[in-house]
Each structure stands twice: as C-alpha cells, then as structure tokens.
Amino acid sequence: MPVKTEHRTLRVLLAAGLVLPALALAQGKKDEAPKKLYCWNENGQRKCADSLPPEAMAAAREEISIRSGMRTGEVQRAMTGEERAAQAEEEAKRKTEALAAETRRRTDQAMLTSFQSEDELRRVFSERINLVDNSINTARYNVTSLREGLVTLLRSAGERELAEKPVPEKLATDIRVRHAQLLYHSALQSSFERQRAELDVEIEDILQRYRQLKASDAPGARVAMDLPPKPRQ
User: What is the pTM of this model?
Assistant: First the structure.
C-alpha cells in the first residue's frame, strides 16, 4: 500500500475514533428526558419543584422547561366529589333533554299509526318519566345534605363568634363553597321539577290528540291532520 494511502486511512480512523464517542455522548443527551419544573399554589403561596410531592398530585399545576424557562404544559386540578357529582347530574340533564327530543321526534312521526291503545302510547314516555323522577330525587337529596352541612358550618362559626374567637379562614371558605353548591343544586332541582311538570303537560296534550283522532278515525280526518291513509287490515 502506498505511504500516502496509509496516512489517509490512519487519519480517517483517528477521526472516527474521536467523532463516534462524541456522537454517542450527544445521542445520550438527546435520549435523556427533558428536565422540567412543576409549579402549583399551596395555601396561597406559589411553590415549584423538579418533582411533584404526593400532596400536590391533585392540585392545578404548570410544567416549565428548566432548559428554556418556557411553560410546556398545564394540568387542571382533580375534581372534588361534589364537582364529580355535579358533572354527573349535568350529564343526566343532557341525556334527559336528548331523550326528550328523540321522543318528540318519534311521537310526531308515528304516534297515531303505531299504537293501538293509550297504554301503548304511555309506555313511550315511561323512560323519560323515570329518568326525570330519578334526577329530581337525587337533586332533592343533595339539597337536603348540603343544607344540613351548611347549617353545621354556620353553627360552628356562630359559636366561635359568640365566644369572641376568630373564625378560621378554612371554615369561612368551606361556608362560601357549601353555600354556592347549595344554590347550584337548588337551581338544578327546580330545573328538573320544571321539566317534570312540562312533561306531564306534553303527555296530556299528546293523549288528547290521540283520543281525538281515534274518535274520528275517518279518511277525511286523517287528511286534515296530514297523516298517511290507515293501512288496510
């Protein structure tokens, strides 16, 4: 092998020996998880740490890159039991409204041509009635429970004031939160009770229409009501 070729090969090998460790080091740094800070509020104070303590797992927090100082993420706080219950009731309310719309659509399409008796027609509404009634009962239970809890908290605060002792901030906060929850669930109860009353009116109106058409089940009456001709038996 010529001398120049040997020198060139040696230089290539030496360069590779220097470059490969550098590439491996760079790759290792690249594979490392990016460092970040977690920042949250605790008792009115902002705290930050590179690892999240157990007591802060349910708190709302920001994630900040240590390398760039930029916020890279945000996690909402975990919902309380009361908030989860409220969310479930909101979902029940949406389901009730959606079921009501579907029932109205089906009623308008096929009420008078699909049911042979009022009992059959009433069964269409049984699911809606049960759902609304269950929602009312749940809301009433929540209102009663929240009211009793609020009375207990207010009694504790009143006793401290009568004893000329300061009311702790946590107790005052619990009173405000419980009062807000009571107002929300009271409004929800009223909404469900209003739906139930409207449902009774709707059912009675449809039954009246059904009775009228059954009483005058003639081709002329069916055309006037924009209904298809009654199928022959």
Answer: 0.47
